[in-house]
Amino acid sequence: MNVTVIGTGYVGLVNGAGFSEFGLQVVCADTDQEKIDGLRRGELPIYEPGLDDLVARNVKAGRLSFTADTAEAIRSGLVVFIAVGTPAADDGSTDTRFVESVSRDIGRNADGYLVVVTKSTVPVGTARKVREWIQEELDARGSRINFSVASNPEFLREGAAIADFMRPDRVVIGTDPDDSQARAILKDLYRPLYLNETPFVLTNVPSAELSKYAANAFLATKISFINEVAGLCEKVGGNVQSVARAMGLDRRIGNKFLHAGPGFGGSCFPKDTLSAAYFSKQLGQSFEIVEAVIRVNRRQRQAMVEKVLAAVEGDVSGKTIAVLGLSFKPETDDMRDSPAVYIVEELVERGASVRAYDPQAMAEAEKELPPITLCKDAYEACQDADALVIVTEWNQFRMLDLERVKSLLRKPILIDLRNIYEPDTLREAGFHYVSVGRPDC
C-alpha cells in the first residue's frame, strides 16, 4: 500500500516515518522546498527523541522519501493524509486555509480512487468541507473520480511520539457509516497494531473529529484544576503534591496531569481548548468548563510572575534573573505558547535582564524571545543572577550542584515552578526557596 503524507511538520513527519517502519511505501510532501532539501540531507526541522534514527533507517531502506511535488505525491498514494498546520486565529477559531489548499490540490490532481484522511486537528465538520473542496475541483475539471474522506486524529505526545505511534493507547478511525471500503483500507493500514491488541475505535467522522478535542480539553482541565488546588494550598498551608497523590490513587481519577506548575502550553492544549470553546459557541452551546480552563491557565502564568517578583522584594527592575527551561515541556524544542515565553517577556517588560538556558530550544529562543542572554548551560545562566527560576522540568535540572549554584548567584534565591526539589533540601542548602502549592522555606 502506498501512503502519502502532506505536511512535514511534527505530525506529518512522525506519522510518515512510523508508517514506513510498518513496511509501507511512504512519500512525505511539502511545498517548502528548503525543508524538503534538508530532510533529504537528513536534517530534521524538529527535535523529537528517536525520530532522526527512524527517518534515516527508513530512507536508507527505500520506504520513505520526501518531495516538494505534491501533485505527483497525491497521484502516487492510495491513502493521502492531510497533516498541515491548523493555527489558532485571534478570535480562537481554527485557521483551516492550509487544509483547504491541500484538499483542492487533491481534487485537481487525483487520478483514481483514494482515501483522504484528516490527521491535522480540525474543528468538527471539517471533513465534510474537505469533501466539498475536493468535489468542487473534480467538478471543475469534469472528473468523476470516486474518493473517501475519513478522520484519524493523532494523539502523539511531544517527547514520546515514537512510542505513542508504535504502541498507542488507541487508534480512532472515523468514516461514513456506509463507507466499508475506506474503513477496510484504514484498518489494513494499521494492521501491525492489531497484533499488539491496540484498542480501535471505529466510529463516524464527527465523533472521531470531536474525540481529539474532548481528550485534550479534559487533560487541560486536570492541569488547571490542580493549579487551582495549589492556590488553595498556599492559602491554607497545604501541600499540593500530597493532595494530588491522594486524588490520583483513586482509580477513577488517576495520577496523570495532576502536577501543579505554570500552566499548560505547546502546540495542542492552548489551541485546542480555544478552538473547542469557539466552535461550541458557533453551534449555540457554551463549553463553560473549557472556557474556565482557559481563564485559569492565563491567570496561572501571571501568578508565576508574581511569585518571582515577591521573591526579589517586589521589583525586578535592574536585576538579573536566571531562567532554566524555555520549551513548553521536556524532550522537545517546541516553544509554542510555552509558559516560559510569557514569564520571560513579563520579566523583561518589567526591567529585568534575563539569562536563560534550555537543552534543546536555544535556536528557537533566538527567534521567539526578546533580547536576553542565552547561555551554554545552567551554571552559566546562574552567573551573577539575583535569582534562579526553573520553568521547565528537564531531567538535568533535577540534580543541580546546589553549592555551585549558590556560589554563582548574587543571592541564594530559587523559584521552582515545577516542584522538582524538596523544600527541606533547599533550606539545608541555604536557599530562599519558592515553589507552587507547597509550604516552602
Structural write-up:
- This protein is α/β, with parallel strands linked by helices.
- The protein has 2 domains: 2-203, 3-Layer(aba) Sandwich (Rossmann fold), CATH 3.40.50; 269-434, NAD(P)-binding Rossmann-like Domain (Rossmann fold), CATH 3.40.50.
- Helices cover 45% and strands 13% of the residues.
- It has helices at 10-21, 33-40, 51-60, 70-76, 97-109, 126-140, 161-166, 180-189, 191-194, 205-236, 240-248, 269-282, 288-311, 339-349, 362-368, 378-382, 402-408, 423-428, and strands at residues 2-6, 25-29, 64-67, 79-82, 114-118, 147-151, 171-174, 200-203, 320-324, 353-357, 373-374, 387-390, 413-416, 432-434.
- It has a 6-stranded parallel beta sheet, with helices on both faces.
- Strand 10 (353-357), helix 15 (362-368) and strand 11 form a beta-alpha-beta unit.
- Helix 5 packs parallel to helix 6, helix 10 (205-236) packs parallel to helix 13 (288-311) and helix 13 (288-311) packs across helix 14.
- The relative contact order is 0.08.
- The model has no long low-confidence stretch (mean pLDDT 96).
Summarize model confidence as the mean pLDDT.
Answer: 96
Rg from Cα: 24 Å
Give the number of helices: 18
**Strand order, sheet with most strands:** 3-2-1-4-5-6
Structural class call reads alpha/beta
**CATH architectural type of the largest domain:** 3-Layer(aba) Sandwich
Poorly predicted runs of 5 or more residues: none
CATH topology of the largest domain: Rossmann fold
Question: Summed up, what is this model?
Answer:
The chain has 441 residues and is of the alpha/beta class.
